[in-house]
Amino acid sequence: MKNEILVKIAEKYKKTPAQVALRWNTQRGVTVLPKSVRPERLHENIDIFDFALDEEDMNAINKLEDTHKQRVVDTYTNSGWSDYE
Fold first, then answer.
1. Radius of gyration of the CA atoms of the chain, in A
2. What's the pLDDT tens digit per position in 26-78?
3. What are phi and psi of 23, to 5 degrees?
4. Quick check: 47 and 36 in contact, CB under 8 A?
5. Which of 1, 8, 11, 57 satisfies CB 3.0 to 4.6 Å to 17 for a cystine?
6. Which residues pair with 70 in a beta bridge?
7. How far apart are the first and last CA of the chain?
8. How far apart are CA 61 and CA 63, in angstroms?
């Protein structure tokens, strides 16, 4: 991840930008299923529960333009997978 804001926040918490993105989603109540087969990445993906993003950092990430496609499943209604841009 090369986003300057995520990099700056990651440096503040001594985490990777990917860990910051995972933590941001987790703090918003979003269940994230990161994909990796590399042991070091698997460890990084779970190592997000020893810090919390403060309100300023949460807001900074909230303001980022979303340019990634997301795949979401509604487990409440079990309506299946939907792709969102």
1. 14
2. 999 988 888 889 999 999 999 999 999 999 999 999 988 765 555 555 555 55
3. -65, -40
4. no
5. 1
6. 84
7. 19
8. 5
Which tokens is 80 given? 């299946």
Which of 36, 9, 35, 37 is closest to 23 using CA atoms?
A: 9
Residue 12 φ then ψ, to 5°:
-60, -40
Residue whose structure tokens are 């841009």: 85
pLDDT of amino acid 6: 94
pTM score, two decimals? 0.76
Backbone angles phi, psi at 63, to 5 degrees: -80, -10
**E-only strand ranges, the chain:** 70-73, 81-84
